[in-house]
Request: fold
Amino acid sequence: MLMLLAALLGGIRGWFRARALGGKRLDMIQYATGYAIAFGLLAAIVGISLARLLEP
Reply:
């Protein structure tokens, strides 16, 4: 669940970042995809780390 939320937030962040840089629609899609992948991967790593830390 954390990974999906992070990917969604990353996509939104990437979309607005590309818009702020003056990108066209395809630029916004590319930025959104890249940020979504990066944020999702980071959330997966954090989730796995937390699961291993909190395991009895």
Notes: DSSP finds two helices and no strands in the chain. The radius of gyration is 14 Å.
